[in-house]
Amino acid sequence: MVRTLISTARRLALKIASYGAMHLIVAILVAFALTRDWRIALAVGVVEPIVQTLAYSIHDRVWHRIEQRRMLSGFEETAEAVTARLELMNAHEQNRAHNHHGHHGHSHALPRSLKQVALKTVTYGVMHFTVAVLVAFALTRDWRIALAIGTVEPLVQTVFFTLHDRIWTRIEARKAQRAAQAATA
Q1: Using CA atoms, how far apart are residues 57 and 63, in angstroms rounded to an integer?
Q2: What CA–CA distances, in Å, run from 75 to 13, 67, 104, 111, 173?
């Protein structure tokens, strides 16, 4: 139990740190491309990713909870079990499984659909835009530059966020698959 908690905390810290490093580099490059001033680019590049990393952590936690809530509620699960016992479900419904994930029996988690990934990306983009504009304005006191940074930088970061999130989803899926294989061996 303790090992699992430490491992989970370590993975979360690594995910957040890798996001922060990626964000720092992209933010500096975009701010410099828009302002041609290294001082502003470095200020935006250092301050904005720190604030964004905190916002990302909150965003990721909220989405994790949303994904968790997509599982059947206790009431729905009970109703499904009663229906199965009354033999109102056919054999296929009773043996529903997601073998590619190593789960047997009833599936409680909905798959990550393209719609869900797109919605997560859009909410990230809105959050990122808001934070980027506010930080850029606080540093430059110029709404035009703040809006330019706040518009371009989040668009670029959203692409990198999506790639980052997909990479981490694959890493976590591989670790879960290895753990399931080790448990059955």
Answers
A1: 10
A2: 35, 18, 20, 21, 28
Q: What is the pLDDT of residues 30-82, one digit of tens each?
A: 999 999 999 999 999 899 878 988 998 999 888 888 877 766 555 555 555 55
By the 10 Å C-beta count (0-12 exposed, 13-18 middle, 19+ buried), 181 is classed as exposed
pTM above the 0.85 mark?
no
Tokens representing residue 90 in the block: 């056919």
- Give which of 146, 120, 143 is closest to 131, Cα–Cα: 146
CA distance 175 to 177: 5
How far apart, in whole angstroms, are the C-alpha atoms of residue 34 and residue 156? 13
CB atoms within 10 A of CB 128: 24
How far CA 182 is from CA of 81, 104, 176, in Å, comes to 30, 16, 10
Distance CA 110, CA 113 (A): 8
Q: Report the alpha-carbon distance of residue 89 to residue 95 in Å, rounded.
A: 10
Rounded distance between C-alpha atoms, residue 107 and residue 99, angstroms:
10
* pLDDT given at position 81: 57
